[in-house]
Amino acid sequence: MRYCKYLSSENGASLSRYALVEKRNGVYWATLPMQAPQEDLSARILGGLPVPTLAVNFEPVPLSDLKLLPPVTPSKILCVGRNYRDHAAELGNEVPKEPLLFLKPPSSLLAPKGVVRIPAISTRVDYEGELGIVIARRCYKIGPDEDVRPYIRGYVCVNDVTARDIQKSDGQWTRGKGFDTFCPVGPIVSDEIDPAGGAPVTVITRLNGVVRQQGSTRDLIFPIAELLRYITQTMTLEPGDLIPTGTPAGVGAVKPGDRIQIEIDGLGILENEFAAE
Ligand code: MG
Fold this sequence. Notes:
The protein has 277 residues and is mainly beta.
């Protein structure tokens, strides 16, 4: 199952809709309803219910033809810091003994192809390519032997954009990580990869077409199951909540006009440009 969210023009109104996504000959297609809007799909995604794998009576449209929206509506974006050894080392930090958690506000979400605004008050803004977990069902205090996969709706590409200077000078990370547009996410959510079940994926970040990060989720210090168990000892996760799992080595600064692409096997490419605010 794969899906996206897009802006639909219907009778002069702009409405956000979900569509299932299929891959044919290397191209992603959204399957849009030919008659009534697909209210049922939204209700299922937002309500944490199972989502069908195949669409019927739908018209395929190339994903690139749609005005895509962030495919998640999280009550919270719960991020993991320094979850790859080589990234902790590159910024001169110790490897954490327990998962290092922080929040980004939902107001930081940005659609694929959206423009990330570089704040005038920051002198260094970095990209951080990450695998994001999307929660399917409410969960709290997941047990040590419990399978976490029923709580996972799927996975998505995320850019945990960071004002590095402000992150350092503030000490805590809310402002440096929390500017509007600092959480690009998309283009699709998919459960057809299984990094929680022992099938690692590669996270690749390109700056203006040049590979800058290439890490495998095999190297996560705290793997996905452990993260979900750890987080839910503290707080309830709700359907749609987003958990970026940390970034591999190779983070770096961007300047206005730069283009960042984050690619993960089976999840497509998240592309955003940066501009001065
Ligand atoms: Mg990060």
